[in-house]
Amino acid sequence: MSILYDEGQQAIATESRRALEARVSKEDLLPLLQTSGQYHDGFWTTAKEQGWTALALPEAYGGLDLGLVELGLIAHQAGRTLSGAPFLTSSFGAAKAIEIYGSDAQKARWLPGLASGETIGAIAFASGPDALPATPSVTWKADRVEGTAPGVSGGLFADVAILFAQDSGTRTLLIVDLAGIERRAVDSFDNSRCIADLLFAGTPAEALVTGDAARAAALHVLSLQAVVTAHEQTGGAEALMEIARDYALTRKAFGQPIGAFQSIKHRIAELYGLVELARANAIHAAACEGQDDFVTAAAAARLSATEAYDTAARDCIQIHGGIGVTWEIGLHLHMRRARTLALEQGSSFFWEDILVDRLAGDAA
Amino acid sequence: MTDLESYRAKAAAWCESMVPTFGKAARKGLSVEKDLALGRRYQKAKFDAGFAGINWPVEYGGQGLGHIEKITFEAEEMKHGFPNVYFGISLGMPVPVLMQFGSDREFVKERVVKALKGEEIWCQLFSEPSGGTDLAGLRTRAETDGNGWKINGQKVWTSWAQYSDYGVIVVRTDPTVAKHKGLTYFWVDMKAPGVTVRPIKLAGGDSHVNEVFFDDVKVSDDHRMSPVGGGFAVALATLMIERYVATDSAGFGPHLDLFVDLAKEVRLNGRPAIEDGRIRQQIARNHAMRAGLDSINRRARLMMQAGMTPGPEGSLNKLVAVRSRQKLSELALDLQGTDAFLFDEHASPKDDWASSWINAPTGRIAGGSDETLLNTIAERILGLPQDHRPDKGVPFNQIPA
Predict the structure, then answer these.
(1) Which residue does chain B place closest to A358, by CA atoms?
(2) In Å, what is the CA distance from B302 to each residue of A47, A286, B78, B299, B393?
(3) Which of A249, A256, A303 shows the shortest C-beta gap to B388?
(4) pTM score
(5) Nearest beta carbon to residue A245 from set B256, B384, B387
(6) Contact between B324 and B293 (Cβ < 8 Å)
(7) Which end of chain B is more exposed for a tag (fewer CB within 10 A), N or C?
(8) In this complex, do B385 and A266 lie within 8 Å of one another by their Cβ atoms?
(9) What ipTM goes with this model?
(10) Which residues contact B305 (CB under 8 A, 6 or more apart)?
(11) What letter does residue B318 receive in the DSSP assignment?
């Protein structure tokens, strides 16, 4: 896959941007922050209508047979406009886990719904700071799971989850039907993510991968998601850089636009650098899907995207001065989202370790 | 195999075959003069093999190929540490500008071919003691002298001037108009009477840059390469030539693999440094940064291959790569502790951390300082306003010194 977008891919970018800019606004997103357990329906309806949920899934199950590059383009635009739900990434991760590691029966059962968007998927691997715990908090015995999967993005509405669990120390990748399970909503600083603790009590589950291969499989799924998220983060950072630039051109102080002061213009130029590095790494990683160095590329994409979005959020607000910290202007939506995306799919600590293990030649 | 892939393979094979004669091992311990002599032989070999002037017209001794072939070759060449540094400026800017703007075409042709063969070297006389970034503020002047001109003044930071046969120079021909309107562009004979070259020893110990003094240096009017008063445009054209050269995400310092190797060797608090979180974080961050630059450069090459103009993000390479090389080099010395004190002034910044560290400030200043590059990104790419410039539109001779 080339790192140069073709015409069809550029059309996906233009069309998704147009659709999202028309359907998502900060006026819709601000109230969601203070409401626990609601996502932005306009965003998710648009995603389903436009076929984004089906984009990177196989045609045999209602997908469009495109890949990470195309989904990345959508995610980039979703990042620009602050997507109102985490499902595009979480359902994609769940669907890929089933597509790669599932049986024909599991694929037939779940993939068509995930492709149409009628079914929502979630990934529940992490436990606190551990994106892929050595000892998962959920246990699996005799085809049933026990325990709590904490802080699952989209968990409040997911129909199916991919779990990282253990059976007396043997790690396993599982698929669980979430119908009827208990969910505890997490009132978070970014409430449209619909984060929940999933409480399992003898819930039936099926194994996808068991034993040593389970961790590698989970890491692969996480890497796929990380590349989608890296695009979303890059989109958010890019939007913030542009907002900062536009503000610096119009806001005047001491008789000139504040963008004429080097302390401001250099800060924005530095953001440009971070955004372009993040974009380059994200595009490269998406094009590497299926290659040996995919996880390495995903880790690099993830690290530079997190740095770009966090820094852009920090600096864009700083450049705005007082108005930047108001509820109304909504820059805090990006600031919140930057942190949320930094924590979903594993923090920078996690990806730094993944990367260095590979560079030093001792990847597990 | 595509045409470009087979070109790369051919270039790689040729470079490989040159290693015994011109590679790092062959150069080790040579004085600058001997290394330059070896460099001239290398440049001649390159010319004979058809790898000099790759994207230059055939009638000027070039190969008539595209920019993409040129940077493909350079990417291969860069792996081996050949003695080509003496010709980088010469063939990078002054000679292409001579090709474009020189008036006596027979003379131009002779010079270009000799430069391509490494027989002659050209330098670029732009920066002055009063300023480098503010190029249009230069003070060296040329006054009419009979049918020609007489140059007086001083240039500085001129790379390889001590070995140069010719140079291109921007001088002030009219101090009564706004600063960038009173400049004219010439070429000069560096061996002409009145030209004095004095090498400047840099912090790292080497002396590739010089001060160049002009005392009543006479040049005829056919040395002029721009309209009188039109020199600034040609100077800008010089600086814009080939924005996309084969870039190096290591910032012309050591490869990150060398840092990883060092971190595996050295022990911190009784365990390998590679297990220390502080070190791991720096490795990961540096890798991500370099991988991003590599990807930007790869995309630029693909765009050129497809006949498109690469995006402006290529301008990030020097800014981002060199300053992080500086910090990584400091960290590499930290890792070695007292073992880092031993210093070899002749070591290469590409594989020695102390050499990389002590020469890094030069990299952050030469060819556009970090601050100038940030201004360029802000103004040219993002459309932010220029800095306040009190000398704007003021005749040069009325600008307070």
Answers:
(1) B284
(2) 32, 17, 19, 5, 42
(3) A256
(4) 0.93
(5) B384
(6) no
(7) C
(8) no
(9) 0.94
(10) B4, B68
(11) H
Q: How many CB atoms lie within 10 A of CB B217?
A: 23
Chain A residue at shortest CA distance from B304: A4
For residue B398, give every residue at least 6 positions away whose Cβ sits within 8 Å of its Cβ, in sequence order, or none.
Answer: none
Q: Is the dihedral of CA A176, A178, A180, A182 positive or negative?
A: positive
Q: With beta carbons under 8 A apart, name residues in chain A contacting B388.
A: 256, 260
Q: Does A141 touch chain B (CB under 8 A)?
A: no
CA–CA separation, A257 and A324 (whole Å): 17
At A153, list the tokens.
């993005």
Determine, for residues A356 and B377 on separate chains, whether the beta-carbon distance falls below 8 Å.
no
Q: Could A280 and B374 be called an inter-chain contact, meaning their C-beta atoms sit closer than 8 Å?
A: no
Closest CB from B289, B302, B316 relative to A4: B302
| B79 phi and psi angles, rounded to 5 deg | -70, -15
Shortest distance, CA A286 to any CA of chain B (angstroms) = 12
Q: Do A273 and B263 touch (CB under 8 A)?
A: no
Whether the Cβ atoms of residue A227 and residue A286 lie closer than 8 Å to each other: yes
Asked if the Cβ–Cβ distance from A300 to B385 is below 8 Å, we say no
Q: Mark yes or no for CB contact B385/A352 under 8 Å.
A: no
* Chain A residue numbers touching B302 (CB-CB < 8 A): 2-4
Measured between CB atoms, does A263 come within 8 Å of chain B? no
Kindly give the confidence (pLDDT) of every residue in chain A, 364 residues in length, as a single tens digit, with 9 standing for 90 and above: 678 899 999 999 999 999 999 998 999 999 999 998 899 999 999 999 999 999 999 999 999 999 999 999 999 999 999 999 999 999 999 999 999 999 999 999 999 999 999 999 999 999 999 999 999 999 999 999 999 999 999 999 999 999 999 999 899 999 999 999 999 999 999 999 999 999 999 999 999 999 999 999 999 999 999 999 999 999 999 999 999 999 999 999 999 999 999 999 999 999 999 999 999 999 999 999 999 999 999 999 999 999 999 999 999 999 999 999 999 999 999 999 999 999 999 999 999 999 999 999 876 4
Distance of CA A176 to the CA centre of its chain: 21
Segment (H or E) for A38: none
| Eight-state DSSP code of residue A300 | H
Task: Report the alpha-carbon distance of residue B233 to residue B226 in Å, rounded.
Answer: 8
Amino acid at A293: D
Query: Rounded CA gap, B325 and B319, in Å?
Result: 10
Q: Where are the alpha helices (DSSP H) in B78-217?
A: 85-92, 94-101, 105-116
Which of B288, B313, B374 has the CB atom closest to A281's CB atom? B288
Residue B281, burial from CB neighbour count under 10 angstroms (0-12, 13-18, 19+): middle
DSSP helix/strand/coil, B297? helix
Q: How far from the centroid of its chain's Cα atoms is residue A145's Cα?
A: 26
Q: Are A48 and A39 in contact (CB under 8 A)?
A: no
| Closest CB from A257, A272, A355 relative to B284 | A355
SS3 state of residue B378: helix
Asked if A146 has any chain B CB less than 8 Å from its own CB, the reply is no
Would you say the C-alpha torsion A315, A320, A325, A326 has a positive or negative sign? negative
